[in-house]
Each structure stands twice: as structure tokens, then as C-alpha cells.
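[09:14] KT: can someone run the structure on this one? pasting the chain below
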Amino acid sequence: MYCKAELAHGRVSMLAVIGFLVGKKVGGSSFLFDASISGPSITHITQVPDGFWPVIIAFIGAYEATRAKTGWVDPANCPVYQPGLLRDDYMPDDLKFDPLGLMPEDPEEFDVMQTKELQNGRLAMLAAAGFLAQEAVDGKGIIEHLQSM
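[09:31] RB: done, C-alpha cells below
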């Protein structure tokens, strides 16, 4: 169960790290939100217009509902002593979405790829935490710090 949570949080963290770097590079010139979001990344969430939140909540809700239907046994068909029982054929967060065909067919190669994804996710979690801590300390973004070296 923890592996599934770690995989999901690792994927979000990998996107967050990309967001930190890209967001700083296009800051003030972005087409989103009329380029009104600026400053340290830790303050960006408070600058997002209110109308954007229902869209984000709808997308996250749809994803989580699909994941729950795909991965978990229906509670009506689940024994009382095994709440939250996963399906036997369920792979962590595998929604059968692989448009680039990156998922290997061989189980051993799949295990190697999944291990790499977990390791990259762990690294991204540490990187995102470091970016947030560094911005909280001095209010400067990661790009500013890299450029001052």
C-alpha cells in the first residue's frame, strides 16, 4: 500500500520540480492568468484566481474516481475483515494509459523501470522540499540562486 502512495507522490513531485524550474523561467511572460503571478513559487498558490480551483478539483476528482474504480474491489463485494482490498490484476496507478509505449512487456524489465520511477520520485520529493525550504528562508527562487553561483 505504501508503494502505491510513494509512486503517486513521486509523480506529483516530479511534476512539481518541473513546475518550479519552468515557472521561474517564464515568470512574467506566461500566457496563463495574464502573467499576473510573480514572486517566489511558494506564494504562487495564493495568487491563482478563484475560478481556477473548481477546474483543478474536477480533474483531480475524476482521476481519483477512475483510479478507485480500476484498483479497488467494490466494497459490497469485499470481506468485512479486508477493507480496501485491491484487485489482483491491479498495478500501482496503472490506468492503461501509455500513448508512447514506454511500459515494457517483460515483467523483469517492468520491475526495473518501476524501481527507476520510484527512485526518481524520491529524488524529486527531496528536490521539491529543498526548493520550498530555500524559498521560505530567503524568498529567492531556485533559478536566482543557480544564476548567482
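[09:33] KT: thanks! The first helix runs from residue 2 to 25.
[09:34] RB: yep, looked fine to me
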